[in-house]
Write a structure and sequence with these properties.
GO terms for molecular function: 4 iron, 4 sulfur cluster binding; metal ion binding. With 85 residues, the chain is α+β, with helices and mostly antiparallel strands. It is built from two helices and two strands, in the order ββαα.
């Protein structure tokens, strides 16, 4: 289940540096999460770090990108394998 940032985002800049997969970036108006890179921190942390630090609780599960924990683990493995020289 990739996460998403809703329009309640206040652009506080705390979520982007917390993402271990670099899935968060500043969009035209608010921050956005790229589903292809979001693993909900599976493989890195027990809980999504962006959700933990968000002061306005605007990062729910993206209903358009429902994924199992196993799928998120496989995505994590693909993303980290791509970083190995």
């Amino acid at each position: 289940m990739a996460l998403m940032i809703t329009d309640e985002c206040i652009n506080c800049d705390v979520c982007e540096p917390e993402c271990p997969n670099q899935a968060i970036s500043l969009g035209p108006e608010i921050y956005v999460i790229y589903p292809a890179r979001c693993t909900e921190c599976v493989g890195h942390f027990d809980e999504p770090q962006c959700v933990q630090v968000c002061p306005v609780a605007c990062i729910p599960v993206n209903p358009a990108h429902i994924e199992s924990r196993e799928t998120l683990w496989q995505k994590y493995q693909r993303l980290t394998a791509a970083k190995v020289p």
